[in-house]
Specification:
Radius of gyration: 25 Å
CATH class of one domain: Mainly Alpha
CATH architecture of one domain: Up-down Bundle
Largest sheet: none
Shape: elongated
CATH topology of one domain: Four Helix Bundle (Hemerythrin (Met), subunit A)
């Protein structure tokens, strides 16, 4: 083995073995997670709730979801409520108008990815889609 190879081998050994030190956790700096929305409890949604009311509430929740993500203020709770409402609305739309389901799903999925990936532009776009879809579906636009 030549001197260059031995030097590289020694350097690799030092770097590899040096990373195996003992880890200490300073418990005086550990903080509790007290962020708003860290835990969520949502009100149950009646299975026979009128579809227009359910979708209207989803639209209202999505209106400021982008800002909630930016502010880190209740976005998880808002998404939990959207998901609970969607769990009631989706089967109704699927059974009555399956061809219209995709556009609703697209808006809901944008809300989900926005919260999960902290991308406020996603629910903003989802809100715009949902407004258009609601208006077309319920004839309010």
């Amino acid at each position: 083995m030549n001197a260059g190879a031995a030097g590289v081998l020694a350097l690799a050994a030092v770097l590899t073995l040096g990373a195996c030190g003992t880890t200490f956790v300073d418990e005086t700096i550990i903080t509790e997670d007290t962020a708003p929305g860290a835990t969520t409890t949502t009100m149950p949604v009646e299975a026979d709730a009128p579809l227009d009311e359910v979708m209207g509430e989803i639209e209202t929740l999505m209106l400021d979801l982008d800002q909630r993500i930016i502010d880190r203020d209740g976005e998880v709770a808002a998404l939990a409520r959207i998901n609970a409402l969607w769990a009631v609305a989706e089967p109704q739309i699927r059974s009555n108008d399956p061809d219209d389901l995709f556009n609703f799903e697209q808006a809901i999925e944008l809300a989900r990815t926005g919260v999960e990936r902290r991308r406020p532009a996603d629910p903003s776009k989802g809100y715009k889609i949902l407004v258009d879809v609601n208006d077309a579906y319920f004839g309010t636009g």
